[in-house]
Amino acid sequence: MEKKFEEFPGVSWTPCPEQFITIEEKLCTGCAACIMVCLADCFEIKNKKAKVKSLEKCMECSSCWYICPADAIQFSFPSGGTGFKTQYG
Amino acid sequence: MAKNFDVIVIGAGFGGPVAAKICVDAGYRTLLIERAEKPGEKVISGLTIPFYGFLFGPEFIVNGNPPIERPADGIINYIILDIEKETIEIDDSLKIPKPFSPIIAFGYNTYCQPFCEWETDIAIKSGVTFLNATTVVDIIKEDGFVKGVETDKGEKFYSKILIDAEGSQGLLAIKAGVREKYPPEMISLADTYDYIISKKLLDNIFGYTVSFCWGWDEEKIAPPLGYGNGLMLWPYRESIHFIQDQCLVLENNKIPNLKKNFQTYHKNITSKLPFWKNNVAPYAKLRAKMFQGFEIFVGLKKNLRNMPNYTDGMLLIGDAAGLESTELCDGVPSAWFSAEIAAKVAISAIEANDFSASFLSIYDMQIKDHPIIQWSISGRNRHDLRFAQKSHDKEELKKYVHNGWGLGALTHFSTPLIQMIVKILREHPEIVKRWIKMYFRYFQNYLYNDYGTKISKYRYNQIRKNRNSKNEVLFRCFLIFIDLIMKIIVTFYKMFKRLIPSVEFINPFVKRILPQFEPLFIKLINLLEPLLNLLSKKIIKFTQYANPYLFS
User: Fold this and answer.
1) Handedness of CA A5, A8, A9, A10 (dihedral sign)
2) What b/e sequence results for B453-463 when a residue is b if at least 16 CB atoms lie within 10 Å of its CB, and e otherwise?
3) What are the CA-CA distances from residue A15 to residues A1, A11, A58, A83, B152 (Å)?
4) In degrees, to the nearest 5, what angle opens at C-alpha B364 toward C-alphas B366 and B8?
5) Do A89 and B293 touch (CB under 8 A)?
6) Confidence of residue B214 (pLDDT cuts 50, 70, 90)
7) Could A86 and B134 be called an inter-chain contact, meaning their C-beta atoms sit closer than 8 Å?
8) What number is the ipTM of this complex?
9) What is the DSSP string of B264-294?
10) How many CA atoms lie within 13 A of A73 on its CB side?
11) Were B389 and a residue from B2, B32, B225, B537 both cysteine, which residue would form a disulfide, CB within 3.0 to 4.6 Å?
12) Residue A83 is inside which H or E element, if any?
């Protein structure tokens, strides 16, 4: 079940069944602020709107939620026992 | 599993288990909920927990033996003026002199995961019900009062009072209508690396000192000046923790490309910074790379500092209450202090059967009355440092580095420190004895990599072979002597309390005498160096081979 990525040694992920970060398309202005601050490549722009590409490397920092000028991003924590983990933090 | 508790604590980070343990020790049914499987495995922070967290923090930590990685006895500030020409100035004025160092440390470098787990285990042993791998998704409110929580599994747990230790995002506090989301300029993203390196090399390169780097924007060593903290390096037991961080928003409202910037800084640090390039890079192996956001400078904005930290039936502690240190970029001591205060307020609320915001407002009063919490959230040096960097004013930069991370810290930290010591000593003169034991216990823990209550067979055998019982008797006598002196001082203090002025004058006084005192102090230390080194070696040897129970 656990996933690891070469880009982030020492960290592993248990995939969360739900999408814990969502974008309200109506509010998104396509400014790409979320893409600029995300270190885990979670977002992409499609048809001038930000979409969640993949949360598989998300470390739940919530920078996307803070930065979105249109308040289009809803952030919640992944369900219990899922998401990232590390013992070197 | 029971659904009704007296207290529910959300989050088993640094603060949560402290609050939970105090409540359960007072005889109240307490539930601690954590979203990770193991406590602390979602906590990422390069970390020196400052000494005042241990001295004035929870009793079970002062008297316990937590998993520490390495004592920290000083800071070396590298002020990078031109990286290509290797023009670097150094401020290493903040250093505890030998023979006090490394036993008396100004902090302890730690990994978050084992530390949080150690705290949680102690809370569980005290009787706290622990629910791991459970995310709290909502707050249950009845008649305007917080009455419990709902989990991701759809379960509902009820309590008389809720202590929220969820961390800086404050999602539940926002849901409860207590707080608002911070603006993005108050958030910094920390890009964190963990390198394995041999202990011998670490001892030679770093010893017990933490290294910070500051520099002009175009050097691209630290995050663009003014918008981040610079580079911080912590030596651990057999690894180095490395953190560079940057605000989500630059001053002109421009959003930086964080991934690209962090890559540039990291490449420059590892290939251009002389001590890293020559002494560390060839021998270090990357073990982990992580990132996490945290709040900065929240304490400097009046509207954010005054956001409530309580409501009907709910108290917020630690980062969830915006108590991350503006001055030192550290949240653990305030998490511990606020956890203790919140737990005690929760207990009195249960006893009075009054969970109203007006009753709980005593919590906020006590937070505002805590000298160290207030100093740490309202200190301006780190903030001013960022603007000195921006203005390219070398003298200003050196001043704020010195005042923030050098001996100049005494010019603003002395008063709250003395206030806190006086406050504690008045009630517990015996605490000095406990502090001394703590320092020795922690150092023996460091030497043998042996935390918790069990003494490993290796440690036991090493000590048994080399014990010096004469020195142990001397140590006991020393403790009795210190204890006696403290009791006499406190008795005199109480007798002549009216004649003793408030300690408010200490900061301005230190500010005046430090410029004269500092060069003399450095000269004296240099002059006495051989003697101090010898003494230090003797104390370390004594600690290494002393009966562990001497320090318990």
Assistant:
1) negative
2) eebeeebeeeb
3) 7, 13, 10, 6, 15
4) 100
5) no
6) confident
7) no
8) 0.97
9) HHHHHHHHHSHHIIIIITTT-EEEEEEEEEE
10) 26
11) B225
12) strand A83-86
CA atoms in the 13 A half-sphere facing the CB of B178: 28
Q: Which ranges of B94-220 does DSSP label H, i.e. alpha helix?
A: 112-125, 171-175, 199-205
pLDDT at B228 over 60: no
Separation of alpha carbons B17 and B4, rounded Å = 19
Please, what is the average pLDDT of chain B?
A: 94
* Dihedral sign computed on CA atoms, order B520, B522, B525, B526: negative
What is the identity of the amino acid at B82? Answer: D
Residue given tokens 């899922």 in the structure block: A82
pLDDT computed for residue B225 by the predictor:
46
Residue to mutate among B195, B289, B295, B319, with most A CBs inside 10 A, is B289
Residues in chain B: 552
Which alpha helices (H) appear in B171-257, and where do they start and end? Answer: 171-175, 199-205
Report helix, strand or coil for B19: helix
Specify the pLDDT at position B111: 96
Using a CB-CB distance cutoff of 8 angstroms, which residues of chain B are in contact with residue A88?
111, 113, 194, 239, 287-288, 290
Query: CA angle at residue A89 from B222 to B540, to 5 degrees?
Result: 90
Closest CA to B179 of B352, B18, B19, B314: B314
Task: Give whole-number Cα distances, B10 to B75, B183, B287, in Å.
Answer: 34, 24, 31
pTM of the shown model:
0.97
Cβ atoms of B208 and B102 closer than 8 Å: yes
Q: What's the average model confidence in pLDDT over B219-244?
A: 79
B66-80, B228-242, B405-419, B450-464: lowest mean pLDDT where? B228-242
- In terms of Cβ atoms closer than 10 Å to its own Cβ (0-12, 13-18, 19+), residue A48 is exposed
Q: Which residues of B303-334 are buried (b: 16+ CB within 10 A; e: fewer)?
A: ebbebbbbbbbbbbbbbbbbbbbbbbbbbbbb
Q: Are residues B42 and A89, on separate chains, in Cβ contact within 8 Å?
A: yes
Mean pLDDT, residues A60-81 taken together: 98
Give residue B442's identity as a one-letter amino acid code.
Y
Q: Cα–Cα distances in Å, from B525 out to B89, B206, B236, B303, B406?
A: 21, 19, 26, 45, 16
- With a CB cutoff of 8 Å and minimum separation 6, the contacts of B487 are B429, B430
Read off the pLDDT of residues B151-168 as tens digits, 9 standing for 90 and up. Answer: 999 999 999 999 999 999
Q: What is the pLDDT of residue B227?
A: 59
Let me know how long chain A is: 89
DSSP state of B317: -
d(CA A54, CA A44): 9
Chain A residues with CB under 8 Å of B255 CB are: 33, 36-37, 67
pLDDT beyond 50 at B450? yes
Mean per-residue pLDDT, B46-61: 94
**Nearest residue of B to residue A79, measured between CA atoms:** B135
Closest Cα of chain A to B183: distance in Å? 7
